[in-house]
Amino acid sequence: MFLYVLLLMKLIDDGDLKNAKEFGDFVLTRIRGVTLRTIDHFAAKAIYFISIAYEKLGLLTQIRPLVFEAYKDCCLHQNQIGQATTMNIIIRTYLQQNMYEQARNFMVKTTFPESVSNNQFSRYLYYQGRIKAI
């Protein structure tokens, strides 16, 4: 999984977004089949980079159902870093399409995990501030 994340980063940095998207789809199917809790952080990073590839291609709305599935899996397996990452991606997809009411409803109906990195929490607070400002 670590090598998958590195390769995704390399493809995105090189600007090879089409191959990054295709490889990201492959990685996403591999993540869904893994039940090891030791790679939760790598899976969260992979989902983040997959969403970056989709966003740069202008296809971020297409990944929303897949991210919802990943969020559901993270909730069922109590994967807090995965929950935080997928929540931020879902909110970002809503904000990109100016769907502020749906983003607010999603934030109200979910709870952000407490013991996650400051980066994810800061991103969540930023999105929350944008929604409240609108």
Outline of this structure?
81% of the residues lie in helices and 0% in strands.
Overview of the molecule:
- It is a single chain.
- The chain has 134 residues and is mainly alpha-helical.
- The protein has a single domain, classed as Serine Threonine Protein Phosphatase 5, Tetratricopeptide repeat, CATH 1.25.40.
- It is 81% helix and 0% strand.
- The chain contains seven helices and no strands.
- It has helices at 2-14, 17-33, 40-57, 60-76, 80-96, 100-109, 118-133.
- Helix 4 (60-76) runs antiparallel to helix 5 (80-96).
- It is globular, with a radius of gyration of 14 Å.
Question: Main traits of this protein?
Answer:
7 helices, 134 residues, mainly alpha, Serine Threonine Protein Phosphatase 5, Tetratricopeptide repeat
Structural class: mainly alpha
Rg estimate, integer Å: 14 Å
CATH fold name, please? Answer: Serine Threonine Protein Phosphatase 5, Tetratricopeptide repeat
**Secondary-structure element pattern, one letter each:** HHHHHHH
Mean model confidence by pLDDT? 89
So how many helices? 7
How far from one another are the termini?
39 Å
